[in-house]
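I wish you would study the pair of lines that follows with an eye to the fold:

===
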Amino acid sequence: MAKSLNGKTVAVLATDGFEQSELTEPVKALKDAGATVHVVSPKSGSIQGWKHHDKGDTVPVDATLDSADAGRYDALMLPGGVMNPDALRLEPKAIAFIRAFVQADKPIAAICHGPWTLIDAGAVRGRRMTSWPSLKTDLTNAGATWVDETVVTDRGLVTSRNPQDLPKFCPKMIEEFAEGRHGHRHAAA
C-alpha cells in the first residue's frame, strides 16, 4: 500500500517531446497520493506530448527553469520520450536542476529515456537501474549497472523501461517519494 504524499511537492521536469503517458500517468498517481505537482520546463506556456510516433496533447507548464528552485521540491520525476531528455541534456539549467536533487539525496524517478539526463547530472555511477533498451550502453559507460527489469529501485532512484511498466513504476515512485531523502545516494566524486 502506497504511503501518502500529503505535504510533499514534486517537480516533473520535461519539455516538448515527452512521452505523454509517462508524464500524465505519474502526475495523476502523485496527485492521487496527495502530492502537489509542478511541471517544470525550460519554456513557459505549454509543452507538446507525443504518443510514441504521433503528436499527443499539450500540458501546461507550472514553472520555468529560470524561476524554479530545486530546494522547494521534495522529489523529482523525469518522463521519457526520445526528444524530451535529448533536449534537456543540452540545457545547462536543466542539468543543474537535476544535479541539485542528486546532491541533496532527494528521491528521483525516471522512466524510458528519462535516465539519459541523469548521466549528465552525474547521478548514475555505481547505481543499479533500467531504461529504454537503447540507453543501456550510455548508462553502462557512465558507470551504472543496467538491468532489464520492470522497475528498479536503488537508494531512492526509481527507474523503469517503458509505458507498459507504469502500473509498477507509479506505486514504487510514490513509495520512494514518501520515504524521502536517501542518504549517500550519489557516488563519491
In short: The chain is about 30% helix and 25% strand. Confidence is low (pLDDT under 50) at residues 185-189. The longest helix spans residues 166-179.
